[in-house]
């Protein structure tokens, strides 16, 4: 466990929904969801009033509407979110240039050395939060610790509009008590699998050897072994380049009907589309992944000249990919949609032109 | 069969011929040199079926015969020996080879020369004779621009257009293009064909400093003969792109600059360019050329300014620095001229001083800058 660094994770509270509430007084204090309200719509962001009803981002809009009948759907305004995101980034850069944006509304900062020679990362995090409030009228939550993994978990603890510091002395006891599902990177499926192995908290996870975890979970097992010991050496990388954006789901019951598979792909396309919009990063290659009941995995992809930006296009492409490969598909256990060849990957890079032979 | 030969003399020829041997040939015997002795003449051959070279030297032999000798072990042996006469003794029954040097004896297993692939002979062919130095120049100036894209086979070779008194050699990889024309040629024919890159590389290394090269060709092969050496290669059977159509005729913006200054500047700036695209930006104004590059991934950045003569509109244009450096490298003129149109159209690179009897024109496509 290396504790020599000071890392802050800043996460805006219900970012898009808050921006909408800020700009339209009629929305204040009411349940708001940003995203499409139609059949294919997916919630991109939900206000805290809506979250009380169980509305979450990446949820199909129809489900959200059912959970919260008074829910107000607002169309997204990415140009505004992008502008606010830029304001926030400017604030970060007053303290350090080691800023790694994860999306429009969250970022890691390494403030071990910082521009105001402030030894306390907690004070910097508080300054950032108050500057954000002052300059954008929005609230943010902060996590402060000595690595990215802990900072990210911490920012979630006193959300919204809160801060949590995990000191080197607190890290291990904190992780031991932490329910396994709260570990960043352990999703529902893995959590269930761990529960079956009698792993419910960090302390339970810690009892497993690295080799056994790798045996059960593959390469990512090594990651689990490390994070529960607060070992995370990943640096805050201001130039991190994302290669792909994707979503996949494992189904309790195998899918056998093409129409059912299409429905699931429509949903996954919606999730991926919302991620793309959030990251403000679109791609040219669409891939679907199909895992059959006998665990055989096939992936099929198609690339385009231009970035796929419209949700309807993305949905249609995933359906076409499925239909064109119908004969290879029988019982489906998992479906995934991802998009690569992202435009940010090529940021600042020119395109070598060719002769027109 | 037994013969004696100078070790360094033999090595010199083997190294030229050995270039034809493929690294992983389909038949094991193609890892060998074919040695054929006839009337105190040793003919050495190597082939990869596409390209073959033969060359011959005088030896002292007691009889005629042939044998295939593993190339790698023979070359290594000769490289490790100081110059001296060596003797080959070949068992005509089992093709065992014994080499005797002043230091001792080396034995290796050969193979029956009858099993060696047949090398094509010129049959019904047209012939052109050119100076070895001219064809050597032509290869040096074009070969670098060929493509490695096996999906577009035509561009992996150099296009020869023989047109009575002149020969045009063209190479392109769709990003850059060289057209080299020389006119001191005696030919009675008009024809065109594509010669693979490998054959031209071999030819370049084998060409003598002076003398003439006889080029012959039929529908499927080209033959290059000089001194005691013959090179045969299969032509690329594909249609060459219509290169004339992409040469702009009226690029209005003309830049003149010192070739070496321009090249040296590009070499320094390229260090700071993105390693995938090698993109540099030329910012051209009246009287000054600013070359700059940046690599956002590493926060690297560089800028230089050069004196130039410029007649045209202010222009920002991106290029792959590697291409420009290579192209400038094969020109000889002290000053070069770039004829440009817009940031997305092909630029022409020309020498200001032409060499008598030859003409060279290069084209390069820009890198389209984002934002």
TrEMBL record, chain B:
UniProt-listed Pfam families: DNA_pol3_beta, DNA_pol3_beta_2, DNA_pol3_beta_3
Entry superkingdom: Bacteria
Designated gene of the protein: dnaN
DNA polymerase III beta sliding clamp N-terminal domain location: 1-119
Subcellular location: Cytoplasm
Function: Confers DNA tethering and processivity to DNA polymerases and other proteins. Acts as a clamp, forming a ring around DNA (a reaction catalyzed by the clamp-loading complex) which diffuses in an ATP-independent manner freely and bidirectionally along dsDNA. Initially characterized for its ability to contact the catalytic subunit of DNA polymerase III (Pol III), a complex, multichain enzyme responsible for most of the replicative synthesis in bacteria; Pol III exhibits 3'-5' exonuclease proofreading activity.
Lineage of the species this protein comes from: Bacteria, Pseudomonadati, Bacteroidota, Saprospiria, Saprospirales
Annotated family: Belongs to the beta sliding clamp family.
Boundaries of every DNA polymerase III beta sliding clamp central domain copy: 131-242
UniProt entry keywords in alphabetical sequence: Cytoplasm, DNA replication, DNA-binding, DNA-directed DNA polymerase, Nucleotidyltransferase, Transferase
Protein name per Swiss-Prot or TrEMBL: Beta sliding clamp
GO terms classed as biological process: DNA strand elongation involved in DNA replication
Quaternary structure note: Forms a ring-shaped head-to-tail homodimer around DNA.
Residue ranges annotated for the DNA polymerase III beta sliding clamp C-terminal domain, each copy included: 246-362
One GO CC annotation: cytoplasm
